[in-house]
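Dear Dr. K.,

Following up on our conversation at the group meeting, I've run the structure prediction for NLI interacting factor from Coniophora puteana. I'm pasting the input sequence below exactly as I used it, so you can double-check it against your construct before we proceed with anything downstream. Let me know if the numbering doesn't match what you have in your notebook.
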Amino acid sequence: MHHSSGFGWLGFGSFRQRNKGHTVEVYLGGRSTLYHVYKRPFVDYFLRKVSGWYTLVIFTASMQEYADPVIDWLDAGRGILAKRLFRESCTVLSNGSYIKDLSLIEEDLSRVCLIDNSPISYSINEANGIPIEGWTHDPSDEALLDLLPVLDSLRFTKDVRRVLGLRGFSLLS
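The predicted C-alpha cells came back this morning:
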C-alpha cells in the first residue's frame, strides 16, 4: 500500500518553539542558504507508526534541493520514506498551483492516499485525498494524531476511494 504526502502533513514551520529544530543548507544557483525547520508535534511517532502500515512516499511541490535534506532529517537513516517526488513531478496550473498526479506513484489508485494541506494538489485524484490543516508553529497541534485512526482503518478496505470519496465525509472537524 502506498501513501503519498506533501509537506503539509509533515509540518515544517519557521517559528521557533520548544523543539530544537534543524538547520538545512540549500545550494541553488551556486549560492548557499540556511533554513531553520521544525518538526510538527508527533511527526516522529506518526512516521514510525504509519510506516508499519504503509509504504510512505513524499510527494512535495518543494524543490529537491530544499526537500532532500529535510526528508533526510525526518527519515533519520531509518529508510521509512521509500520514494521522493518533487516539484518537477507536479503539474503547474496557470495560477501557479501545483497538482500531484498520484498515478506517478502507483497505477492502481485503490490503495493510494495523499495527505496534503492543499486540496488543489489532489484535485485530479480527489477521492484519494486526505486533508490536513497546515502547520507553522502551534506546539499543541495534534492533527497527525487525529489521522492515525483513519489511516489505520483504511488499511482494511479494498479501495480507499470508496471511503474517502464519500460526499459529506470529512476528516477535519
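Two things stood out to me. Confidence is low (pLDDT under 50) at residues 4-17. The helical segments are 7-10, 43-50, 64-75, 143-154, 160-164.

Best regards,
J.T.
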